[in-house]
């Protein structure tokens, strides 16, 4: 038997010991059509020893060692599972061809009983300081105003330290990491539960949250190192 059970793996013993528990959710179910011939993007090597997914899990475990980690797989699931440590929960999005990131997040959030969730898109390479600045008491997003992300990525407008809009064509970018707790997590769960929205992107759901008076603080860690992998040339091995 595999060390991981399929579809939904149970919470691992010895984790979730914090008074306020958190689930770190990493969606990697998509095909990634621009890189389909290479297999899942998250299995590309970021250095001699690690793939992207292994790097993400290592950095998350460095910062949040007592919180559960959930990886939502789909495209070539077995290959990804083979690279995932025993303590990580696996959830499988069997509809990955017909849906988008929100279906993966719906499955993961619905199978988490934590007080908060940290969503990290699975095509990011970053250092631990990128996520160390998260305050567990308030919902937030990681942003970038220093050109770490391409011009055509989703940007944000920020007013009084909080994000008011997610949209294309804005100079300050959303770094595709969001922390949700309290009312914002409740709103996110409700949005994801609508099956008619399973082809939406994460930023579209976040837009609905801020439009309904949810508050997402904007955080740009000073020592953040991060980039997104859209193509082989984006990999900065080292």
Overview of this protein structure:
It is a single chain. Strand 2 (68-73), helix 2 (77-81) and strand 3 form a beta-alpha-beta unit. With 238 residues, this protein is α/β, with parallel strands linked by helices. It has helices spanning 52-63, 77-81, 101-110, 129-132, 182-192, 202-211, and strands at 22-27, 68-73, 89-92, 116-120, 124-126, 140-144, 155-159, 162-167, 173-181, 217-219, 226-228. The strands form 3 sheets. The protein has a 7-stranded mixed β-sheet with strand order 3-2-1-4-9-6-10, sandwiched between helices. Strands 5-11 form a two-stranded antiparallel ribbon. It has one domain (22-228): Spore Coat Polysaccharide Biosynthesis Protein SpsA, Chain A (Alpha-Beta Complex), CATH 3.90.550.10. Helices cover 22% and strands 23% of the residues. Residues 1-6 and 9-19 have low confidence and may be disordered.
Keywords:
alpha/beta; 238 residues; two-stranded antiparallel sheet; Spore Coat Polysaccharide Biosynthesis Protein SpsA, Chain A; disordered N terminus; 6 helices; seven-stranded mixed sheet; single chain
Layout of helices and strands, plus pairs?
Layout lengths: L21 E6 L24 H12 L4 E6 L3 H5 L7 E4 L8 H10 L5 E5 L3 E3 L2 H4 L7 E5 L10 E5 L2 E6 L5 E9 H11 L9 H10 L5 E3 L6 E3 L10
Parallel strand pairs: 1-2, 1-4, 2-3, 6-10
Antiparallel strand pairs: 4-9, 5-11, 6-9, 7-8
Helix pairs in contact: 5-6
Low-confidence stretches: 1-6, 9-19
* Cα-to-Cα separation, first versus last residue: 35 Å
CATH class identity: Alpha Beta
**Count of DSSP strands:** 11
H/E series: EHEHEHEEHEEEEHHEE
